[in-house]
Amino acid sequence: MRGLELSGATSAPETIYALASGTGRAALAVLRLSGAGVPKILAAIVGKVPPARKASLATFADPASGEPIDRGLCLYFPAPASFTGEDCAEFHVHGGPAVIAALLAALANFPKTRPAEAGEFARRAFENGKLDLTEVEGLADLIDAETEMQRRQALRQTRGALRHKAESWRSKLLEAAALLEAEIDFADEADVAPLAREALAGLLAPVREDLVAALAQGRAGEIIREGVTVVIAGPPNAGKSTLLNALARREAAIVSPLPGTTRDAIEVHLDIGGFAFVLIDTAGLRETADPIERIGVARARARAEAADLILWLSETGAPPPADLPVEVPVWALHSKSDLDGGATPGFLAISAETGANLGLLTEKLAGFARAAAGEAESGVITRERHRRAFLAAATALDRTLAGIGGPVELLSEDLRAAIEALESLIGRIDVEDVLGEIFARFCIGK
Ligand SMILES: Nc1nc2c(ncn2[C@@H]2O[C@H](COP(=O)(O)OP(=O)(O)OP(=O)(O)O)[C@@H](O)[C@H]2O)c(=O)[nH]1
Ligand SMILES: [K+]
Ligand SMILES: [Mg+2]
Question: Which residues contact 195 (CB under 8 A, 6 or more apart)?
C-alpha cells in the first residue's frame, strides 16, 4: 500500500492516547491508545496484558505510586488486527473528570508516548492500509451525521461502497494497461494488435458506462451530506422570519411589524423527514436608500442564486420578480392566509400564525429532498472531490476509446490518466493535500 510511505519514519511512531468519548460529566468514558508501547503501558497500568479482543475487568493504577485510579474494563487489540493496524487498547472507566485527568496524567509519563492529534487514529489506520481515503471520509461524515439519511450514506461509505467500486474499475483498467504493455513488447508481431484492441475496448467501455451512470445521479449524495439549501425570499414584511421561526420551532430570527427588520441572512439547520436542510431567511427584497439594508438585499439575492430551492413569500400573492435566478426552482407561497384566505392561483396559502398548511409545506420539502437525492441508496458520490475524480476518469476513458485504433503510446497515456484519477480518489496518490483537510476536521480521539 502506497500510503505506508507517508509515515516516512525510520523509527516506530510514538504511542498516542486520547479521550475518545465526549467531554463533560458522564457515566462512562473511553480512553484509547495506539502504538508499539501499548503492551508495556498495559502491564504498568493494569498489571497485565489482557487477552486479545476480550473485555477484562481491571484495576487501573498509577504506575508511579501504585495507587488505584479506577476500576473498569480494559480491551487489548494486538497489531495488525486493530483499527489503526498498530497495537491498540481501550480503557472503559467512569466518566468523572478526575478519573480521566488521573489516567491521562499517568499515560503522559511513559516514554515515546504523547496525546493524539485530531484525527490521528484514523490517519494511522489510513497509513497502515486499514482504510482508504473514501472510508476515512465516510467515517468523518458518520461522526458528523445529524440526520438518518446522512447516517446511512456515511455508514455505506465507511463500509467501502465507493472504495469497492473504484478498486474494481481500477483493476479492469490495470488489466487493460497490461494488454497495452504486451502490445508494446510484441511490437514486431503485426497480428497482435487488432485482437488486443478489441479486448481493450471491451474492458474499458463498461467502466466508462459505470462512471457516467454514477455522474448522472447528479448531486444526490452531496445533497444528503450537505443538506438541501432553501432560501426564504419575498418583499419586506411578508412574514419570512416568522415562517423560518415556525419551521425551526424556535426564535431564530427577529420578527417585527417594521418592514426591513431582517438584514443579514439567517441560517437554520433542520432535519425534515430524515433529510438535512439549510433554511435561510433573508432581507425583504425592495429598492431602499438605507445602505445597510441594501447590503442585506444584495446578500439575499446571492443566497437565492446558490440555493437548491427558493420559497417566494408574499402576503398579497404578488408574483416573484423576473430577476430571480432562473435555474433555481421557486415555490410561491401566499403568506398570512389567516388574514385574507390567501386564495391566489398557483400559490400555496400558509399562515405561520395559525400553522395552516405548514405541515403540508414540510411534507413537500421532504418530497423535494427525496426527489433531489434520487436513488441515493446506490449513489456513491458524496463530495465534490469524488465528482472531480469520476469526471477526470470518464474523460480520460473517452479519449482512450476515441483513439482505440491509434498509436499505443497515446492509448497508454490516456489510460494512465484514468487510472491516476481513480487512485487519487482512494488515496493511493496525491493524498497530502486532501489528508490535511480531512483529518483536521476530525475530533481528538478518532
Ligand atoms: N396575521 C399574521 N401575521 C403574520 C404572519 N406571519 C407574520 N406576521 C406578522 O407580520 C409582521 C412581519 O413579520 P416578519 O416575519 O418580521 O416579516 P419579514 O418578511 O421577515 O419582514 P422583513 O424581515 O422586514 O422583510 C410581523 O408583525 C408578524 O407578526 C401570519 O401568518 N399571520
Ligand atoms: K418585519
Ligand atoms: Mg425578516
Answer: none
CATH number of the domain that residue 210 is part of: 1.20.120.430
Ligand 1 contact via 284 beta carbon (within 6 Å): yes
How many domains, in total, are found in the chain? 3
From the CA of 356, the nearest ligand is: 1
Q: Is the CB of 334 under 6 A from ligand 1?
A: no
CA of 401 to the centre of ligand 3 (A): 55
Q: State residue 189's pLDDT score.
A: 55
Q: Is 236 in the pocket of ligand 1 (CB under 6 A)?
A: yes
Cα(165)–Cα(161) distance, integer angstroms:
7
- Domain that includes residue 335, residue range: 233-373
145 and 111 inside one domain:
no
Distance CA 397, CA 409 (A): 15
**Residues 115-174 pLDDT 10s:** 999 999 999 999 999 999 999 999 999 999 999 999 999 999 999 999 999 999 999 999
176 lies in some domain? yes
Q: Which residue has the higher pLDDT, 163 or 10?
A: 163
Q: Which atom of ligand 1 is nearest to the CA of 235?
A: 25
Is 241 one of the annotated binding-site residues?
A: yes
Angle between the N-to-C axes of helices 133-144 and 408-426, in degrees from 0 to 180, rounded to the nearest 10: 30
Residue-wise pLDDT for 48-69, tens only, equals 999 999 999 999 999 999 999 9
Q: Among the three residues 70, 100, 131, which one is the final residue of a domain in this structure?
A: 131
Q: Which helix (H) or strand (E) holds 195?
A: helix 192-216
Taking residue 275's Cβ as centre, other Cβ atoms within 10 Å add up to 24
Q: What is the pTM of this model?
A: 0.81
